[in-house]
Amino acid sequence: MKKILILCLAAVVMTGCKTGKGVLSTYKKENVVTEQDLNTDSVFGDDLTAMALGGDAEGLGGLKWRELFTDPVLQALIERVLAQNTDIVNADFQLQEVEHALKAAKLAFAPSISLNLNGASTRPWDPYNRNTYNNTLTYGIAMTLGWQNVNFLALRNAKKGAEISRQQMQYAKQAIQAQLVANTATMYYTLAELDEQIELMNQTRDNWAEYLRMEKLLMDAGQSNTAVVSSIEATYWSICQSIVTLKDNVKIVENSLTALMSERPQKISRTALDSFRAPKVIATGLPINVLRRRPDVNVSEMKLAKSFYDVNQARAAFFPSLTLTATGQFTNNTGAGVVNPGIMIGQAVAGLAQPIFANGQLRAQLRISKEEFNIAKNNFVSCMINAGNEVNTAMVKVRSAEEMRELIDNQVNALETSYDANRKLYANSSANYLNVITAHNNLLNARMTQISNRMEAISATVELYQALGGGAE
Description:
By secondary structure, the protein is an alpha+beta fold. It is about 65% helix and about 10% strand.
């Protein structure tokens, strides 16, 4: 018997030591994900050459959204969205849920306390009524304090996991906020872009209406024909259709923006597209730590940390669980003949349960937790690389928009000169009015491209700002 007991104790020690290594370890990113895991010194690529704009891209990500979007009308819209959007409101509720879960995980270390009241009334009964018996009343009050099958190592890792879940939910809320800020700003300036496009299309429509009028006069004078007039008229009606489409797009974007605010469809006030003043940006190779501002990267890391503690918790299941109970009870019996019936009863029980064989479930759960950890690690590395690619892409767009802006401005200046020259030639009766119309249409088309370029620059700046983790306050 003694030998069997010794063998059992040895099995307990060997089981815990073999499977419980690192059960008290704490998550540290540098010990889990290394530069070798990322397979590169930087996830941003090799083409982040300096952009001749001045400033600091890392500093751009550190700006608050009110510092980037200085338009007071836009600021008021963003504040309404952040206060009323359903997703952000639900994120607050979910954050409260994980707060409650964390409190419960912390209280799991405390012993349970219970109070039990009991009573009984006993009276013998004689069917022949030969004797008379007195009632016997018994009652007791018991209080129990203790831990029942508690594995403190598992509780420790569960509490760590709950703390990680809270941080993860905070980052998830920041991701929602950053996305809402970016979407609101993009739709706001899209409306401003559509306003300018509609204005230009109205000028184009009026231009073709005048061209159509002049061509009809020429046809009446025998200097034109129906084919030319019909072709010009078809172009005129096509432009009118485009104006209707643009106005419909305004309504659609306004409806989308009011939906973000959880409000009914309404007209959105806005300023001109030129009201946006982008901060200066430069990229000379950014440190990878700049991505730590990104909420999605932080959420991915929190999932990795949570899986880390899930592994520790699975290891802790191999360690013994403790049962420690202390009970105090007052009991009394009011039966006849009892001189001093009230007594106190105390009891203390301690137990230690060590799992030896649980049908392979503990080892299977440990292996599953390790595989989930590997998946979370790969997802985190992939998230970092994708984040770097997004920064790279956004910077390319900003640079391209800046380079195109100068070229388009030069084109517009040249077409303005051409238009003025054709008007003067027509005034001197040395040119056909068709040349004036053509020059004007070319100028309007170039200005339309100019508007699109300004919107692309704004969108690229917002995209870069979000890619660098900005807007998540």
